[in-house]
Amino acid sequence: METKKTIRVLIAKIGLDGHDVGAKVLIFWLRDQGMEVIYTGLRQSVEQVVEVALQEAVDVIGVSILSGSHVSISRKLMKRIRERELGDVLVLFGGTIPKDDIAVLKGIGVQGVFPSHAKLEEISAFIQQNVKHGE
Amino acid sequence: MAKKASETEVRPVVSILGTPVQCFYGPEDLPDFDYKEKLNDPGEYPFTRGVYPTMYRSALWTMRQYSGQSTPDSTNERFKYLLKNGQTGLSLAFDLPTQIGLDSDMPLAEDDVGKLGVAVDSLEDFERIFDGISLDQISTSFTINATAPIILAMYVLVAQKQGVEPKKLRGTIQNDILKEYIARGTWIFPPEPSIKLVGDLVEYCNKEIPRFNAISVSGTHILEYGANTMQSVALAISIAEVYIGEVLKRGSHIDQIAPLFSFHLPIGGRDFNFFEDIARLRAARRYWARLMKEKYGAQDKRSLQFRFSTGGMGGGLTAEQPLNNIARATIYAMAAVFSGTRSLNLACYDEVYAIPSDLAIRTSLRVQQILAFETGVADVVDPLGGSYYVEKLTDEMEAKIGETVADIEKDGGIVKMIESGAIQRELARQSYALQKKISSGGKVLVGVNKFKVKEEERDLEIYKTDPETINRQLQRLKAVKASRDQGKVEGALKELEAAAGRGDNIIPYLFEPLTEKATVGEIIDTLKKVYGTFKEPTTI
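^ Those are the sequences you sent over. The predicted structure of the assembly is below.
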């Protein structure tokens, strides 16, 4: 039996939004589910986040945005992920995201969208079901 | 104590402080209760019942809905709309680039221009926001911190242009940077020079704009970050003491500066408890009055008065069945009024989704108006005063606030705890614990973990930012830059840099660069050369 690989997650704050308690709550939760979680801190650029994701070989990038900038930031992030050939990474967005924007984000290529009222259990279950490990 | 024995049979309830809550309270819960010492009449020391003798019988609380969006012109429109609808004060929200000192054309700003509030790049933007609004007729509240000195200087310049003397300006500027390191993240410089800037603004207002609240120490964001209702007050008081220390060391007397301090405190939120929220605000008034008198030797009555506005917290509102939020907000508003708030900004029912729509803002304002004019709750000062339960709770809250403030002091003070990230970690953990309690159903949230409905998402009319905002803002900024004398801008910025280097109060040195059309970003970059930037602790 192969042992299950530990899922590695990068939680990122992209842009200027400084509300990060939701991100931290999620970090605690994912760690309690046995995942390894890295936090970028505030005010990261898309480029910085993608480089950290590469260096740390993460399986998941979770972006937390409460400032309403999720659409433009997701476009830049997905483009950068393609450029840097990070194809297998699972990308999630969470935060203050209006219902109508969920489909927009999915159209851009974000796999999981979790508005602020999403349950922690939903997020971890989504990661476990959809994550692709390197091999 | 018969009633306590019978309570073994009933549903157990524990207060936010961890103490068991009885089924009812009576005289034995308040032994040796001395009215004069504990309460006294409203407007009398220790001000437990209110800072003014007649409160809402003389003047209702200020009904102020937070607003400000996209461009200066659309903010100006909304201000006029709110004034027309009977609002009595303005409250201005800034976009994130303005809050952290980036111009709309700077890297990293692009995605956030005009999103959470209005974009202000130069003095011209500020003039547009207040176009046609006489600054001597209104009071304005500015939610701004790291760039507060610049915003205040702009307000003074706009007033002068209108022919209004700065001495006549009324309003409040948040100017509370320390809570930004804990909760909201709009810091620029490290804590030490940031505290110095807070002091600069307080000192300047004291001399030049005495009717302006130079600081509004905020517990609201701390509550949203995970603090409980008592901690949100205790931490705000600890932070206020840091600023007081900063101004006192410049030679001011406590009675010159304490009257300039006001607080913005949360009511509601995930942990809301009607009576506890009220009791801890009554307790805060008493605690502050005693602190100012006994620790700082204040004598002026105004130094002893703990004046606060309240924010009805969006954190307690739910995305599920959003109209339920109107009921929640109403109860928050009622608690705020029973607490003796001087001003109330009430969260809107659609806030979980986006910036509030016109309808949602108007509804929050109507809630306040219904309370004020239809219900009688504003007729008698401190109507809960003398309630066995509320007085007992108030005593407990006051003791716990004191203990919490002392503990922070023992741990090296609030600034140290912020720099190390200790306080942020602790509050985030509390937030996690509360979230787990909601997930497990241990804490009921109607519509979320109980009384759920299937088809719950109604289509709300949601406010959308105009996608053209950034282009308009960029064009205007370009025009401003093209129309100025670059040499004069640079000269004025050099003067500012020198003043900051000498450790002078920088406020007087902001007028020249602003008049020469220097941008917010250029001013902040100049100050960064002297003060450096904050390195955020990211270990969780």
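The domain at 8-130 of chain A is CATH 3.40.50.280 (Rossmann fold). The longest strand of chain A covers residues 60-65.

Shout if you want it in another format.
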